[in-house]
Amino acid sequence: MEIELGVQNVTRPVTFNSDEPAEQIEHTIEQALEAHKPIVLMDNKSRRFIVPADALGYAIIGSETRHAVGFGALS
Predict the structure, then answer these.
(1) What is the bridge-based pairing of β-strands 14-17 and 39-42?
(2) Structural domain boundaries of the chain?
(3) What is the dihedral of CA 9, 34, 22, 41, to 10 degrees?
């Protein structure tokens, strides 16, 4: 799923894909915000994204559903 994090005073959002469930990502962000600690998330290429919780402007957590692609409807 695609995740987009907006960081205050940064013009471009941080966007990456993760294999973690949406609930886990949301829980990680909420815990970091409550504790005023950095948000640490990992993408599907095992890269870590560390964002200071106090600098987070917004977070968009994409859909977990995979969309089918192909020509199955053609007869």
Answers:
(1) unpaired
(2) 2-61
(3) 60
> What DSSP string runs through 2-55?
EEEEEETT-SS-EEEE--S-HHHHHHHHHHHHHHT--EEEE-TTS-EEEE-GGG
CB 20 within 8 A of CB 46: no
Contact 53, 41 (CB under 8 A): no
Summarize pLDDT for 15-72 with one digit per residue, the tens. Answer: 999 999 999 999 999 999 999 999 999 999 999 999 999 999 999 998 665 555 666 5
Q: What angle do CA 19, 23, 26 make, to 5 degrees?
A: 95
